[in-house]
Amino acid sequence: MYAGLESLKLGRGGDQRLAELLQLDPGTVARGRKQLLAQEVEWERVRKPGAGRRPVEKKLPK
Hints:
This protein is mainly α. It has a domain of 40 residues. The protein has 4 helices and no strands. Helix 1 packs across helix 2, helix 1 crosses helix 3 and helix 2 crosses helix 3. The protein is elongated, with a radius of gyration of 15 Å.
């Protein structure tokens, strides 16, 4: 979200410039910018359900 907001401030080419600066994929920056413009921000969620790394216990059962 932050990168998307800053991209809006920079204007044309902002996605690419911020992606290089923050070492992100330009698509990630663009997705955040589009969510902000569409006002589809889910403030309670950080990731989609089920996303992220699996717990070690699940990956390597005892």
